[in-house]
Every structure is written in C-alpha cells, then in structure tokens.
C-alpha cells in the first residue's frame, strides 16, 4: 500500500529552467555578456557538468559554482569568483517560482491520505529557501546530499530518505522530471516511480509517465 510521495524539487515542484532564464537575462549583461539562446544553453551544459561532479562527491558545492564561472572565462581567487556568482544567485533566487500545477497535485496527495517529502540534489540551505519562497516551507521533510551524504542517482539517497521517513521503499512513490535521477534510481532502491515529462522528451517507452502534475492523481 502506498503511504508517501517523495517529490523532486527543481523541474518538478519549482520552475528551475524558467528561473535560470530570468536570472541570466538580468545578470549576464552586468558582466558584459548577452543572454542569447546559445549562451543560456551553454550555461545549462556547463552547470550539469560540474553538478554531476558534485553529485559524485568529487568537489564541494561552492567549488562546482567556481568551476562553472571559470568555464565562462572568469578568473581570480575563490573569494572573487564567489562574489561574482552571488550576483547571479540573487537574480536566480528572486526569480524562483513553483509551477502552476503544484497546488492541485499536493491537494490530490492530501486527499489520498498520503504523506509528502522532498528529495533534492542541491545544498540544504538553498533548497529549503526555495521551498519557503514558494510557500511550501511546511510541506514535509526535505533531504539533500548534505543530509544523506550521497546524491541521486545513487539508490542509497532514496534508501536513506525513506528510512529516515519511517517508510518502506515499496510504500513510497518517487515523482521527478529526470528519468535517470528520479525514476530509474528510485526503482533501483525499491520505490515506485512516476516520470514527470513536462517537455515530452521521453523516453516514450516509460509506462508511468505524465506531462503535468495534474495527472499525478491517477498514479496514487
């Protein structure tokens, strides 16, 4: 029997990509760059490269930010790079918003009598601040690699979160936008999983796939 829903945050509850675009549009001109589509795409590519290294625990969270800036041509000591990144971060935090289907999904989960928690690959302070900005500070437990010592797609991140929640894996449904991180990894840990494929990017063969959180009620 299902007892809890474990949501991803960025790309699932919160509009990370939209927030990044808004932030880059405001910030890049202040550092002499243009927020054209190619530059925005490059930002995402560079970010994923160094976030992947952080997820593997090869570098810490501040260092992945510095490496992203170095790939964009910024130079200088760590403190200077941290100061540059703060300019982007302020814009990103101000832009962060929830998707318009979140409230309906959470209401469906509540109506089904299920518990809610969040498992997210991000720093604990930043991710909890995002939830507070969205009015979801009291949503439920929030687990990050800072809490668990490992990040998705390590199945241990799911196992650790579920154990701390007091549930069994088979009683928990993982919902997220990354098929590799939120679906396959969750299933490896024994959880059920639903892929939130907002952009229709696939994989098309995934049997438990939704295009909006408004469709989540059918999987509860």
UniProtKB/TrEMBL annotation:
Superkingdom of the organism of origin: Bacteria
GO molecular function: hydrolase activity
Keywords: Hydrolase
UniProt cross-references to SUPFAM superfamilies, sorted A to Z: HAD-like
Entries under Pfam families matching the protein: Hydrolase
Record's keyword annotation contains Hydrolase: yes
Name of the protein: Putative hydrolase of the HAD superfamily
InterPro entries found in the cross-reference section: HAD-like_sf, HAD-SF_hydro_IA, HAD_sf, S-2-haloacid_dehalogenase
